[in-house]
């Protein structure tokens, strides 16, 4: 296999004028620390700081971006060692799993996953070949040797990646034992939780009543009324803040917001406790709880994130066999202007609230989200997310929102990943794409070179720290 080196001008425009500006702008951000305010890396790896078991478990098992592509080509999740809910047999030989991945590496050409993986192999692990069937064993053995050494322990990589802060995502009934262990260890890496209450705020959630019972256990009082429920949620938020959390996250299907009367919501809550809630009840309860979460964030200062517009677990046979987060979540059409009007009218003018809104529906960027964020002081736009976190996706995001919302109603970049070693790769893509976008503005004399350098540093570092109160 030929030696493969990453081009220093990758992702920059071939136009020599734009490329020259992009290169200079990127150089001013390339070495800035990484701030990762929203993601799904398991804090357990930093608490234990043990070597990663093997290359398959490091690269393949935690990364649904990766195995969804392989699954689309007819490769079963069982063959890739992804556990089944029923405990059924799956592939257990990491070398065989790695060979499947290597033989199909070409599938990732032109995709963001391929771009990230190329960086991980080239830069993080110093491997200058693209995997294939011929070099699969060689690369596996080289990776195994490296991840078994102290230089590639999770905490060592955290420092090497120059991560200033990393937020995990944790349920409202998570006791955060790994965060506590990290604190007690004396290590100075900043790993903080994020309060995600979906499993107790969405009454359609499987085992919702069990989750409510657990909420009561954690707060010391049975949760048998709506008033008690709200008090319990406020206690859990306070616990998360004591553990370092600065934000909440809400993965709702739609950003519908509506405030119910106290009588209406208490009736819905009790109905749900009896197991009698209908789908329409869940829709209105979720809408009300977004209003409640905005109220709480206005009072306690936690940044509120809303991640709507995803049909979770679209492939039901796969869900029943392997569970959620297995690459079968699909975007849906999403509306914001009318759905969020009630929340924004109540809290969007309050300087105490920071509300960061994401979308998987790119058509809403210029039509709805940029105009909303360009008006309401509390609202900011989250970066291109999930399926749009790519070279073209980030470019389209900047093109769609900048003229209406500007740069300073956005919040920089977040990697939103479970795959820890992909974090520097993802941030490098965002820095390069933003540099290229700014370079184009300079080349067309829309902004000056000096303005571009300032904006680039803000997009990379300052805006995310300010927005997430880090």
Give the CA-based shape.
globular
Instruction: Tell me what portion of residues adopts beta-strand conformation.
Output: 5-15%
Helix percentage: 40-55%
What's the alpha carbon Rg, rounded to whole Å?
23 Å
Q: Let me know the CATH homologous superfamily of the largest domain.
A: Metal-dependent hydrolases
Q: What top-tier CATH class of the largest domain fits best? A: Alpha Beta
Q: What number is the mean pLDDT? A: 97
CATH topology of the largest domain: TIM Barrel
Spans of at least 5 consecutive residues whose pLDDT stays below 50 are none
Class per helix and strand makeup: alpha/beta
Q: Specify the biggest β-sheet.
A: 4 strands, parallel
**Total strands:** 11
Q: How many individual helices?
A: 20
Identify the CATH architecture of the largest domain: Alpha-Beta Barrel
Reading side by side through the largest sheet, how are the strands ordered?
6-7-10-11
Counting structural domains, the number is 2
How widely separated are the two ends? 44 Å
Secondary structure elements and pairings:
Blueprint: H1 16-27, E1 34-36, H2 44-48, H3 55-59, H4 64-72, H5 94-103, H6 112-124, H7 136-147, H8 154-160, E2 163-167, E3 170-171, H9 177-185, E4 191-192, E5 195-196, H10 198-201, H11 208-219, H12 226-242, E6 247-250, H13 262-273, H14 279-300, E7 303-306, E8 310-311, H15 316-322, E9 330-331, H16 341-347, E10 355-357, H17 364-373, E11 379-381, H18 391-405, H19 423-443, H20 449-467
Parallel strand pairs: 1-2, 2-4, 3-5, 6-7, 7-10, 10-11
Antiparallel strand pairs: 8-9
